[in-house]
Specification:
The chain has 751 residues and is of the alpha+beta class. The longest helix is centred in the middle third of the chain and has 38 residues. The protein is built from 18 helices and 32 strands. It folds into 3 domains: 253 residues, Glycoside hydrolase, family 65, N-terminal domain (Beta-galactosidase, Chain A, domain 5), CATH 2.70.98.40; 360 residues, Alpha/alpha barrel (Glycosyltransferase), CATH 1.50.10.10; 54 residues, no CATH class. The chain is globular. Strand 23, helix 13 and strand 24 form a beta-alpha-beta unit. Belongs to the glycosyl hydrolase 65 family.
């Protein structure tokens, strides 16, 4: 199943796992899946004991019929990978295309080769395109081809792992109508307990006419059975185009008509034209995002693999987002978390800001649901975004590590702040960003309070920080620090809005019932925010109680007891000093200019030995912070763990989907860690370092309408302003001025 994840394809709307066209090999476990981003079905959550405000329904990413099915039979034998004479499969990163070459021999000695390619179109998001070339090597005769839309696939996962998730077509889709013709087939489904209608349409094209055609029509499968004549030494090419389309508003008839038009147009355009357009979109992404590592092929492979999957899975329509597993598997039921805003948008904001903007637009479209959730949680004003969701409702059934993570609001504010710093997109802030920022900011005043017992400092009780091994605490440092930054940015944007467009600002304030006195209280709360600090240890305390707990007995915890969440009751974990992932350390990265180097080093030295890194979100943050504090060997070790996380299946669960936040973290480790890049309000800064293992590395940035390429080598750092107006940036203590089209080299001696 691991390869089925690694070879998955997606385009932001549809994703399909890297399973074989002929289906799974006998006696081998397989996990089929084709998914639509932003389309979901709801299931009522069953609790043993329920209380007010618990999430009522879980939303699950919708599976749709598998259209990849192209089965071949020769001499009554099914042609598959298990019986191949030789075979190879590879994912072409540059073109986002999956290929397979296979030679096969029947029991009677007839040999043929089968080459297949497929891609999820980056220019036609409803389309999945397949091409199969069949060559009879030592015979002439007929071969059987079965092409299906399969709505009957199933999978039984490990139900003891809460991260896995369970998706089922039987539980989620109700068949409305289906049809199979000589070359086309379609199925219409209604999502159970939901408004979504889904059309799945396929069409076949072949370079030779079939000698015989019959239709396949079962309750959960429709398609064609063809007899194709083969001539020795001559290739036959079969193309299959599958369109998936959904709607809440359209009738089934209109939905089907639109999908049929798209597959007919795809057939007329043909494979070459569609693949050329698709490749151009992939090329544009690589022009903006590629990272080159000179001196380590394994890590070069890892970073490009990670970047490709981020690009393929991220929502691109403003109505969807990015699941923790992308569109590669059913892990976490396809839910969106804070992973998008803290990790994935860090990459996209700096390389493809339009994609970052689309994800922020999704958050804006679900703002009303966040307002309703805030009321449900007894907040009279503001908005509380759900910890895990697809359609905008809270789906977390375990509130200590779900709803209690109020820092989701700060994550969205951080993404807004980062996006604006990188793009200066004032129009977006006017139309969407400011409203999200203000509505999420006002929630902190309802959640926290000015504590007279702490000299009037602003305290926040009953929350969970990023470290999910410590839950429901008072004054989680990360939460408080991020809330402070959130409130400060909201105050700054209110002042800017008031100055630049007073009329629009006043209209927004009226609509939100927002007053100047409330904004003034935001400023006071930020100024008086309580940030726990231990004077004896000279470190920031993770929360009010963390340092008083007994440290976890790591020495007597065997390796097979990790991750702890699968082997110990949450209460056992909560009683100890032990971290699942970066918490204070993450705050140091996101708010890097509010800590000095000595403080960062002390915090890191205390918390890293207590961290299990059971979450794949953790290693990258530690890599960045070790790099920032000068321990480049530790930084490299954590980076290596991050960049190869899925290819090497380091956490043993990649078969359920890739780890998208970790993938983003591998880019962050290079650009923000080794290169020391920061996009601050006062400009762009770079503090580069070259790992001893490398000859050099190169990466690209988008910054306020400019495209910049940076090369770090053993003797110099080179800059090229590829597009945009001249720019000055800060490298170490030196100011560097860039002009368009001119390479500028700065020797290490001048750093």
């Amino acid at each position: 199943m691991l390869e089925e994840t690694l070879f998955a394809l997606a385009n932001g709307y549809l994703g399909t796992r890297g399973t074989m066209e002929e289906g799974a090999v006998a006696d081998h476990q397989s996990c089929e899946g084709t998914y639509l981003n932003g389309v979901y079905h709801s299931e009522k959550i069953t609790y043993g004991e329920v209380a007010y405000g618990y999430a009522s329904h879980n939303q699950k990413m919708q599976q749709v019929p598998n259209g990849k099915v192209l089965k071949l039979k020769l001499d009554d034998q099914t042609i598959n990978l298990a019986d191949a004479m030789e075979a190879t499969r590879w994912l072409d990163f540059r073109t986002a295309t999956l290929h397979r070459q296979m030679r096969w021999q029947s029991g009677s000695g007839r040999q043929l080769s089968v080459n297949t390619s497929r891609f999820a179109s980056l220019t036609h998001p409803n389309l999945l395109c397949l091409r199969m070339e069949i060559l009879a090597e030592n015979f002439s005769g007929d071969i059987e081809l079965s092409a299906l839309l399969d709505a009957g696939y199933r999978f039984s996962p490990n139900k003891d792992d809460p991260r896995v998730g369970v998706l089922s077509l039987d539980d989620s889709l109700a068949l409305y109508q289906q049809h199979a013709g000589d070359s086309d087939a379609w199925m219409l489904h209604q999502v159970k307990d939901g408004e979504f209608k889904i059309a799945s349409v396929s069409i076949l094209n072949s370079t030779v006419a079939p000698r015989h055609i019959s239709q396949i029509t079962h309750e959960k499968q429709v398609g064609q059975h063809w007899l194709l004549p083969l001539k020795q030494g001559e290739s036959v090419i079969v193309e299959k185009y599958i369109c998936y389309q959904h709607s809440k508003e359209l009738t089934f008839e209109t939905l089907l008509d639109e999908a049929q038009q798209k597959v007919q147009e795809a057939k007329r355009s043909g494979w070459d034209a569609l693949h050329s357009q698709h490749q151009q979109a992939a090329d544009a992404f690589w022009q903006n995002a590629d990272v080159q590592i000179d001196g380590d092929p394994a890590l070069q492979q890892g970073i490009r693999f990670n970047l490709l999957h981020l690009f393929m899975s991220i929502g691109k329509d403003g109505h969807s987002n990015m699941g923790a597993k992308g569109l590669t598997g059913h892990g976490y039921d396809g839910h969106y978390f804070w992973d998008t805003e803290i990790y994935i948008l860090s990459v996209m904001t700096a390389t493809n800001p339009e994609l970052a903007k689309r994800c922020l637009e999704y958050r804006y479209r679900t703002l009303e649901g966040a307002r309703q959730r805030a009321r449900q949680m007894s907040h009279s004003q503001g908005a509380l975004y759900p910890w895990r969701t697809i359609g905008g409702d809270e789906c977390s059934a375990f509130f200590p590590a779900g709803t209690a993570q109020y820092h989701i609001n700060a994550a969205i504010a951080h993404a807004l702040r980062s996006y604006y710093a990188a793009t200066a997109d004032w129009q977006f802030m006017q139309e969407m960003g400011a409203e999200m920022l203000f509505e999420t900011a006002r929630l902190w005043l309802s959640l926290g309070h000015f504590n007279a017992r702490r000299d009037g400092q602003f305290c926040i009780d009953g929350v969970t920080g990023p470290d999910e091994y410590t839950a429901i605490v008072s004054n989680n440092f990360y939460t408080n620090a991020m809330a402070k930054a959130h409130l400060q940015f909201a105050v700054q944007m209110a002042a800017k809005f008031r100055h630049q467009d007073l009329t629009a600002y006043e209209q927004l304030c009226v609509r939100l019932s927002l007053t100047e006195s409330e904004i003034s209280i935001w400023e006071q709360a930020a100024e008086k925010m309580y940030l726990p600090f231990d004077e004896t240890l000279r470190i920031h305390a993770q929360d009010d109680s963390f340092l008083d707990k007994q440290p976890w007995d790591f020495a007597n915890t065997p390796p097979d007891k990790y991750p702890l969440l699968l082997h110990f009751h949450p209460l056992v974990i909560y009683r100890h000093q032990v971290l699942k992932q970066a918490d204070v350390v993450l705050a140091m990265y996101l708010l890097d200019d509010t800590f000095d180097q000595a403080q960062k080093a002390r915090n890191l030295a205390y918390y890293e030995p207590l961290t299990t890194h059971d979450s794949t979100l953790s290693s990258c943050i530690h890599s960045i912070e070790f790099a920032e504090t000068g321990d480049y060997q530790r930084a490299y070790e954590f980076f290596h763990d991050t960049v190869r996380m899925d290819i090497d299946n380091r956490h043993g669960n990649t078969e359920y989907g890739v780890h998208t936040a970790c993938m983003a973290g591998s880019w962050m480790s290079i650009v923000h860690g080794f290169a020391g890049v920061r996009m601050r309000p006062d400009g762009l800064t770079v503090n580069p370092h070259l790992p001893d293992h490398w000859q050099g590395y190169t990466f690209n940035l988008q910054y306020q309408g400019r495209q910049i390429q940076i090369k770090v080598s053993k003797d110099k750092v080179s800059y090229l302003l590829k597009d945009g107006e001249s720019l000055s940036l800060q490298q170490g203590t030196q100011q560097v001025h860039l002009n368009k089209g001119q390479w500028l080299n700065v020797s290490w001696g001048n750093l």
